[in-house]
Structures are given as C-alpha cells and as structure tokens.
C-alpha cells in the first residue's frame, strides 16, 4: 500500500545543525535556513574583527590581503544556507510532481517511497555531520596555519612575538574548521540528492515524448539544478578573493588564473550537470520510440489527408476545405512530431546553463581592476561616450 503523503516535504536538509537552528528559531517554514547562515557567519566575523582590534591590527581589517576571510564568513557561509533554502522547496515540488503527473507509474511508487524514506532517515542522522566535523577539524592542523594579520593564504607570524595572534588562531582553528565543515555537510546533501536521482533513474519511468518541456516530463529537474546558483557564486567568490590576495602581493601573474577558472568551471559541470546524465539512456530511448510511434501515426494521417483533400476533385471550389478541422489537426500533428524530434538526451537547457554560468563567472569580474585600474576604466568610458 502506497502512502502518497510520504512524498510530501521531500528534502535532503537535516541533521544536528538543522535541529539546533530549529530550536533557536533560526529555521523558518521548515526549510528556510537563511537566518541560521547569517547568524553563523555574522558571529564568526564579529569575533574575528574584535580580536583583530585587540591584536592592534585595526588598519588591516579592510586590507586586500585578508579579503578572503571576509568573503568566507560574510558571503560563502550565508550563501550555502541560501542555496539550501532555495533547493528544498524545488526538490519537494519535483518529487510531488513526478508522482502526481504519472511519470512514475503506480507499479513503481512503492520503490520510490522506499527511496524517499531512506533519504529521510539519512538526512536526519547525526553520524554524517559528525563525520564531516571529523574531516574538517584535522585540516586546521595538517594544512599550513593562516594568520589574518598578514594574509589568509600564507603563514604570517606575529612580528612582535613570532607566534600566532589571537585573530589568527580564531580564524585558523575555529572559522576555517566551521567553514570546511559546512562545505563537507553541503556536499553530503548533494550526494543524497544524486543518490536519489540514481535510484529514480533505475525505475521504469513513463516518459512522454510529446511533453512540451522537451525532456519527456523531466524538465522540472532544470528548475531544481538552477537553484545551485548561490553555492556556485559562493565558491567563485572565495576563489576570486584568493586570487585577489595573491595578485595584491605579486605571488603570480594575472594570466595564471585562467587555467584555474577553467578547472573550476569543469568542476561545476561535474557536480551539477553530470547527475542529469543518469537519464540520458531513458531519454534517448523515449525519443527513438516517440519518433517511431508518432512517425507511423503521421504517415497514416497524411495519407488519409491526401486521399481526402488532395486526390479528389469534388472540392475544387475549396468551399468544404475552408474551416475544416483536418488542416488544424495536421498542424497539431506536425507540432507533436517536432517536439518529439527535439527531445533532449540530457534535461539541460540553454536557460539553465546561463543560470549557472553567470554566477560562476560574475565574481571574477572585479579582478579586471588589477589590469585596468578604476580610474583608467572611467577615463576610457568617458572618452568612448563623449569622443567626437
């Protein structure tokens, strides 16, 4: 017996941190965790700035050499939770849609219900987040320590004592550990979603080749994956900040960032587009079967249409031809065949690529100022506007 209510409220968000946010009133509507992200990032940043003032490094708070710390705490951490808040409703709507639309046949609903229940158990478990914390904590001691007094990418001891400053220790041990924990936690949630898509792709889905979404009914997956934009922007922002730190001290030339940006785009494609390849075989089979089935229907219809309207002289004056529904039916059939022919092998559209590509590249635009200072850019713009 299938309980359709079990498919409502599907989510991959959960765990001890989520429960703590609920108890503190920082989670709204069951899935909106934005306030939790703002609270975490804001608290870490306020303590960081306070400790920098105590260390006597107030003049370096707004230094370009520590911009990476500000971006990690004030941009990346909140955006990770913004991504959660945007994704959760879309995922729930997707699961609700594939059940009610008949894309998952009734015979496959028990298997789908079992997978949804398994995801629910895993997202509520405390063990995955404990593992994420255990992975994040040692990195603060294995990787080179970072002191915000001199930069977030190199070890810079206190010039007076030769040791770690308070602000550097806080950032190195606490801020970075929590930052990495949140990233590991987020990748765990992404793994849960990819596992669900994999199990779903193994079901006997009822894909309709004439569905207007040109994806057999899986077009709503594009809406889900488009919501990864905040996370993509966050990762690009922290990478851009790291590049800015290096460029500000002359650690590498500007051209050195190009291959790293390309590698970053490849990583985004692997993380957010590759899971959709799971449905490639089914969509290809759907298109092939649709072309064969609708091709036969189209062939029979046009033959009958030709016999009735083209191969006869009874309607030479065209009086009966005007207003007949046969012509409209012929046009509708042509549209249906065209939709079948345009079924995409992977449910990825140009709009989705733009939705993910823009936030991936936008954070790197300020780096242009290292080549063209803002005064030079302003002068060139004025000349372009008012030159005779």
Question: Could you characterize what this model shows?
Answer:
The chain has 388 residues and is mainly α. The protein has one domain (4-286, 346-386). The chain contains 13 helices and no strands. The protein has helices spanning 16-23, 34-54, 67-100, 109-124, 127-142, 166-201, 220-226, 229-248, 257-272, 280-310, 325-341, 350-361, 374-386. Helix 3 runs antiparallel to helix 8 (229-248), helix 7 (220-226) runs parallel beside helix 12 (350-361) and helix 10 packs antiparallel against helix 11 (325-341). The relative contact order is 0.11. Residues 146-150 and 153-161 have low confidence and may be disordered.
* Strand segment count: 0
Number of domains: 1
Helix content: 55-70%
What share of the residues does DSSP label as strand, in percent?
Answer: under 5%
* Main structural class: mainly alpha
User: What count of helical segments does DSSP give?
Assistant: 13
Biggest sheet statistics:
none
Instruction: Describe the global form.
Output: globular
The parts where pLDDT drops under 50 for at least 5 residues are 146-150, 153-161
Cα end-to-end separation: 78 Å
The ordered string of helix (H) and strand (E) elements is: HHHHHHHHHHHHH
User: How much is the average pLDDT?
Assistant: 86
How large, in whole angstroms, is the Cα Rg?
Answer: 28 Å
